[in-house]
Amino acid sequence: MSVIELRDVSVTFHERRQTIEAVKHVSLTVEKGEIFGIVGFSGAGKSTLVRVINLLQRPTSGRLLLDGADITDAKGSQLRDIRKRIGFIFQGFNLISNVTVGRNVQFALKAGGWEKSDWDRRTRELLRLVGLENKIDTYPSSLSGGQKQRVAIARALANKPEILLCDEATSALDLETTEEILDLLQRINRELGITIVFITHQLDVAKQVFDRVAVMENGSVVELGDTFDVFSAPKHATTRSLVERYLGIAVPPQLVPSLPAGQIVELRYKGDAALEPLISEVAKRHGVSINVLHANVSYFGPHAIGILIVLVSGGDAAVNAALDELKSHVFGFRKLDRTALAQIHDADGADNEDGTDADDAGNENRGEKETNA
Ligand SMILES: Nc1ncnc2c1ncn2[C@@H]1O[C@H](COP(=O)(O)OP(=O)(O)OP(=O)(O)O)[C@@H](O)[C@H]1O
Ligand SMILES: [Mg+2]
After folding, report:
1. Given a cut of 80, is residue 365 above it in pLDDT?
2. Residue 121 belongs to a domain
């Protein structure tokens, strides 16, 4: 049985005279023990969707099931119990600044109904788990970003949740600290068996830790599957655009007009086997010239995927024969349009690379309050 099931969930906001369909007819399941990811550009509806899971956001329509039980209309003590079963961490940590690290954790224990006599033991246990036992009497202001997120994780785990929701939990951290937090979350997933639902717009985070991933665009899930499959052979334009931006796959547009005539193609291949020897063989055999315009190998978990963009020029028949041969050696083959390549493409969400725009701050503020659609 799935731990979480969303059935045809929609969330609509009415703001002044505007209607915003933040989530549209999303159905998906999250299995016990997996790390399930949601990626997408800014405004895609990721935060809204994840807030439905702990009912901080009520769906406008559709149902939410937890361990097979319909909890869409949960209220009062049932709702409190559900919230105990689901921990939540954000980009902005949301620690209480005028009390110590230890007290921050204790507030969660108090809210979870723990006996006061157990608070100290449990707080130390949680802080030890996240590697911060020596910071129990420290105030949040003197902690680094990574340490703050560790405290937030300890607090989120206080009531032994089965599920941990992470909304851009690493987006405010530098590379090294991100790695540490991801390691910690993976350990929590493995050792405590906690199911994790993780939202991010950072593909390097996604490819490293997600078992499965859903790609959201404009309120809908446009692609869903095993992380490697989705990212290595993206089917939807949004997924392709996310992957391309992440891998930095691009032919500099200003270069395109000066390129010799010929067909530009993108080749995707699995494994780290180099394609260069094949390229030169094919070029020789068919009497064409093949220029490599872009090359990249990237690791998704343990798997490597390689992407090459090449320009094949020569006589029409020879070019076609060469392309056919290249096609038979790769799993992804796409002819690229020169005119499109020459345009400086500025896809949506380009200003959100660092995840620190005003929208994100808004989301955090919304984080603690329940809103009714
Ligand atoms: N409480 C709200 N009231 C009105 N509109 C909202 C509310 N929350 C979200 N929205 C709108 O719903 C859409 C989806 O927002 P959401 O925060 O879920 O996107 P997101 O994918 O998390 O984006 P980001 O990557 O920037 O965090 C946006 O258009 C947003 O402005
Ligand atoms: Mg968000």
Report:
1. no
2. yes
